[in-house]
Design a protein that fits this description.
Blueprint: H1 7-19, H2 26-32, H3 34-43, H4 47-54
Helix pairs in contact: 1-3, 1-4, 2-3
Length: about 60
């Protein structure tokens, strides 16, 4: 399986989307940027985990 992005690229892309005010809902990101979703789910157990890790959100 070829993963299009590195973990750092996933983090940077999520942060960039957040700064742009783009919705980070799984459905929206999957439609808008399938490569980001594929890579995030490869490196993280869930999309929510990828977002919280990338944005340093404590749960």
């Amino acid at each position: 399986m070829d993963i299009p992005m590195s973990p750092d690229e996933v983090t940077k892309r999520i942060k960039h989307l957040k700064q742009q005010g783009v919705s980070l809902s799984k459905k929206k990101v999957k439609q808008m940027d399938p490569e980001l979703m594929q890579s995030a789910l490869y490196y993280y157990p869930s999309w929510d985990h990828a977002v919280t890790s990338s944005l340093n959100i404590k749960q």
